[in-house]
Amino acid sequence: MRLDAILSRYGYCSRREAAMWIKRGRVTVKGVPAKSASAKAEPADVLVNGEPIEFPDGLYVALNKPTGCTCSHREEGELVYDLLPPRWMERGDGVSTVGRLDKETAGLLLLTDDGAFVHALTSPKRHVPKVYEFVCSAPIPRDAVAMFAGGEFMLHGESTPCLPAELEITGECCGRLTLHEGRYHQVRRMLAAVGAPVVELTRIAIGPLTLEELHLAPGEWVAIDPSIFA
Ligand code: URA
């Protein structure tokens, strides 16, 4: 790839600005200062301001989403993207969330610039399990465990039943729900339908990845290895 294409693709500067960055000695290839924006290089061999190119093989991060921010590029108010380095938003392939969490839902959220990864994890065919911990404002009826597991639970306004989901009741008004699909506001709607409206919701795992093992404070992120989802 040309150096100017590398600098713009990974969000450092525009192709036009690249010539100036190179002239000012900000770019090296295999340790040698670059001379021309049109020279070709492997992204992994390039340093910008002495630092390697970030995520040359694709950006994959896990964020501990706090409540109060939205998984959208467009909405008003605080966005999950505001919690990430601004340069990532300039990457040519665009960074997006892998699925969404509601504004008032916290916890594990994946972000990437790899559209195939988004598709693989959100495809209804894959059924990647997602685990949610919740607190309700009313006791959770015991028979909800069998209702959710049965594969016949219908949500209001939908034409197909929910896939079997595992409900664990850990206290009178709290528990854990594992879903194998991702319908709009699904956890909140399922629990509201059995008379237990959710007041706090946190996603604690996606497939093999758990929030606990990442040790992230709300708002913090860390790079992950996407091959764990293969
Ligand atoms: N279910 C919900 O109700 N909200 C989320 O954010 C995720 C799953």
Features:
230 residues; alpha+beta; 7 helices; 13 strands; binds uracil
What does this structure look like?
The protein has helices spanning 3-9, 15-23, 86-89, 115-122, 144-149, 186-193, 211-214, and strands at 27-29, 32-33, 46-48, 51-52, 60-65, 96-97, 105-112, 130-136, 166-171, 174-179, 198-206, 209-210, 221-223. The two termini are 28 Å apart. With 230 residues, it is of the alpha+beta class. The chain contains seven helices and 13 strands. Strands 5, 6, 7, 8, 9, 10, 11, 12 and 13 form a nine-stranded mixed beta sheet that branches. Strands 2-1-3-4 form a four-stranded antiparallel beta sheet, with no helix packed on it. Helix content is 20%, strand content 26%. A hairpin with a 2-residue loop joins strand 11 and strand 12. The chain binds uracil. Uracil binds at residues 101-102, 105, 185-188, 201. Uracil (URA) is lined by residues 101-102, 105, 185-188, 201.
